[in-house]
From TrEMBL:
Keywords per UniProt: Aminotransferase, DNA-binding, Pyridoxal phosphate, Transcription, Transcription regulation, Transferase
Cofactor(s) the record lists: pyridoxal 5'-phosphate
Record field: transmembrane: none
Source organism of this protein record: Gracilibacillus orientalis
Record protein name field: DNA-binding transcriptional regulator, MocR family, contains an aminotransferase domain
Taxonomic lineage from the root: Bacteria, Bacillati, Bacillota, Bacilli, Bacillales
Gene3D superfamilies cross-referenced by the UniProt entry: Aspartate Aminotransferase, domain 1, Type I PLP-dependent aspartate aminotransferase-like (Major domain), Winged helix-like DNA-binding domain superfamily/Winged helix DNA-binding domain
One protein family per Pfam: GntR
InterPro entries: Aminotransferase_I/II_large (IPR004839), HTH_trans_reg/aminotransferase (IPR051446), PyrdxlP-dep_Trfase (IPR015424), PyrdxlP-dep_Trfase_major (IPR015421), PyrdxlP-dep_Trfase_small (IPR015422), Tscrpt_reg_HTH_GntR (IPR000524), WH-like_DNA-bd_sf (IPR036388), WH_DNA-bd_sf (IPR036390)
GO molecular function term, any single one: pyridoxal phosphate binding
PANTHER family: HTH-TYPE TRANSCRIPTIONAL REGULATORY PROTEIN GABR
Top-level taxon: Bacteria
Family, similarity comment: In the C-terminal section; belongs to the class-I pyridoxal-phosphate-dependent aminotransferase family.
Length: 453
C-alpha cells in the first residue's frame, strides 16, 4: 500500500501500537492532518474510516476521533480491569469532596448548635428557602412551606406509597419497567399496583386514560427525564397531556425528576410546570448529581397532602440530617453547585455519546438499544431466547458488569431479556472494550447456547 491515505493509516497505527496514542486519547483533527500531510480532508477521512473498520479508532459526533481500548498485544496479557456498567452512583472522580468539605466547615461555624439539636420536621428553613430559588430556575415555582427535606427520593416514594390521598383512591400506576426502588416499595407495602408499558417512543396515552378512568389510581409514579432503566424522556407536549389527564380523572402524579439537572435542553420543563391544580408531587435527590452519602432529597407537595405526609414523615424519622442540610445551603448559595453541574453535564453527555457510538459499532441491528441524550442509563434488548441473567453471569467472568433489569418489572410484566447499562462510574476509556465484550457474548450465547453458570 503506497497511497497517501495508507501512509497516514500506518503512521497512526504505529503510534497506537507503540503507545504514543493511548487508549481513549483523541486523535488529531482532520484539518490538522490534512495540513501536516499536504493532502485533502477527504484523504484523511478515508484513512479514519479504514481505521474504524479495523476497530482501532471510533468517532463521536461533533467531537472527533478517539483510540479504541488498548490494542497492544503485550498490554492485553495483563489482567483486565473491571469495566463497571453496574454501579449507579456518580463518577467518583467528579464528586465535589473538597468544596463540600469547605461548606460543612462553614455550616458548623454559621449554624453551630442549630445543626446538632432537634430540627424542623420539614427541614432547615434556610435550605428550603435556598432550594425554592434553586427550583425556580428549573420552572418549579413553590414555597418553603410546601417543601420537605428527606433522606433521598427513595424515602419520598416509601412514604407516599401507603398514604391515603384526598381523591379517596387506593391503587398505584407505574411505568414498566421502572426504578426498582418503586417496585420494591409497592410490593413491601402490599399496595395494588398496575403497570403501563414504556418504550423510547413513550407510553400509549389512550391506554393511560383507560387506566386512570377504570382502576381507581391514587397516583401515577413517573420518571419523565432520563428514565431508569431505559433513558427515555417525554416531550413537553406529552408531559402536558399526562397532567391534563391526571386532572381530568382526579389522579395525582409523583414526578421523580432525579436526573432533571442533567438535561441539556434548556426548554425542557418538569411536569410540575403544567400543573395549575396541585396534582403533581415533585421529588428529586442530590445523590446522583453530587454525593450519595449526603442523603438529601426533596418533595414538593400539594397543600392538601402536607399534613398527612408530615405525619408519615414523623413516624419514619423525626427529621433529616441537619449537617448535610446546612452544608448544601451554603453550597447552593455560593454558586459551587452550578459550577459542578456544568462539569458533570459534559462528563455524562460525553460518556453517553461514547456508549451509543460503541453500541452502534458492535451490536447487531437485531439487538436494539435505547439511545438517550444523556443521563445515567440506557438499555439493550436481548434475543428472547437469551435470559439476561445468563449474559450477566458470563460477562462477570470477563470483569464486565451490567444489571439484569428483571427486578424493574412487576411480576405480570416480567421480561428476562433486558439489561441496563449505567455509564456513571465506568471509565470512558473502557467503554468500547466493554460494549465489544457484551456484543461478543450476546452473539456467542445466542448462537451456540453455551451455558455460563
Amino acid at each position: 500500500m503506497n497511497t497517501k491515505y495508507s501512509v497516514i493509516m500506518n503512521d497512526i497505527k504505529q503510534k497506537i501500537f507503540e503507545g504514543t496514542l493511548k487508549s481513549g486519547s483523541k486523535i488529531s483533527s482532520i484539518r490538522y492532518l490534512s495540513e501536516k500531510y499536504s493532502c485533502s480532508k477527504n484523504t484523511i477521512i478515508k484513512a479514519y474510516n479504514e481505521l474504524e473498520k479495523q476497530h482501532l479508532i471510533y468517532s463521536i459526533p461533533k467531537s472527533g476521533y478517539y483510540v479504541v481500548h488498548d490494542v497492544n498485544p503485550l498490554n492485553n496479557m495483563e489482567d483486565s480491569p473491571k469495566i463497571d456498567f453496574l454501579s449507579a452512583g456518580p463518577d467518583n472522580a467528579a464528586m465535589p469532596y473538597k468544596d463540600f468539605q469547605h461548606c460543612i466547615n462553614q455550616a458548623i461555624g454559621l449554624y453551630k448548635g442549630e445543626l446538632f439539636t432537634y430540627s424542623h420536621q420539614q427541614g432547615l428553613m434556610a435550605l428550603r428557602k435556598e432550594l425554592t430559588k434553586h427550583l425556580q430556575d428549573r420552572q418549579v415555582f413553590t414555597s418553603p412551606e410546601r417543601m420537605f427535606i428527606l433522606s433521598g427520593s427513595q424515602q419520598a416514594i416509601n412514604l407516599l406509597t401507603p398514604m391515603s390521598f384526598p381523591n379517596g383512591k387506593s391503587n398505584i400506576l407505574i411505568e414498566q419497567p421502572t426504578y426498582f426502588g418503586a417496585v420494591e416499595a409497592v410490593q413491601l407495602h402490599n399496595v395494588k399496583t398496575f403497570g403501563i408499558e414504556l418504550s423510547m417512543e413513550g407510553i400509549d396515552l389512550d391506554r393511560l386514560e383507560y387506566m386512570f378512568r377504570h382502576n381507581e389510581i391514587k397516583f401515577f409514579y413517573i420518571i419523565p427525564r432520563f428514565h431508569n432503566p431505559l433513558g427515555h424522556s417525554y416531550s413537553n407536549e406529552e408531559k402536558r397531556e399526562i397532567v391534563e389527564l391526571a386532572n381530568k380523572y382526579d389522579v395525582y402524579i409523583v414526578e421523580d425528576d432525579i436526573f432533571g439537572d442533567l438535561d441539556i435542553n434548556s426548554k425542557s420543563d418538569p411536569m410540575f410546570t403544567y400543573d395549575p391544580r396541585g396534582k403533581v408531587i415533585y421529588i428529586k435527590s442530590f445523590s446522583k448529581i453530587m454525593l450519595p452519602g449526603l442523603r438529601i432529597g426533596i418533595a414538593v407537595l400539594p397543600e392538601l397532602l402536607i399534613n398527612t405526609f408530615s405525619r408519615h414523615k414523623f413516624s419514619n424519622d423525626l427529621f433529616s440530617t441537619t449537617i448535610s442540610q446546612g452544608a448544601l445551603e451554603i453550597y447552593l448559595k455560593s454558586g459551587m453547585f452550578n459550577s459542578h453541574l456544568e462539569n458533570i453535564r459534559d462528563l455524562y453527555r460525553t460518556k453517553m455519546e461514547i456508549v451509543k457510538a460503541a453500541c452502534q459499532h458492535y451490536l447487531s441491528p437485531n439487538y436494539p438499544f435505547t439511545a438517550p441524550e444523556t443521563g445515567f442509563y440506557m438499555s439493550i434488548y436481548l434475543p428472547r431466547e437469551l435470559p439476561a441473567k445468563r449474559l450477566v453471569n458470563a460477562l462477570q467472568q470477563e470483569n464486565v458488569f451490567v444489571d439484569d433489569a428483571k427486578r424493574m418489572y412487576l411480576p405480570e410484566f416480567q421480561k428476562e431479556n433486558l439489561i441496563r447499562v449505567c455509564i456513571a462510574q465506568v471509565d470512558k476509556n473502557q467503554i468500547y472494550k466493554g460494549v465489544e465484550t457484551i456484543a461478543k457474548y450476546i452473539h456467542t450465547l445466542k448462537n451456540q447456547q453455551v451455558e455460563f453458570y
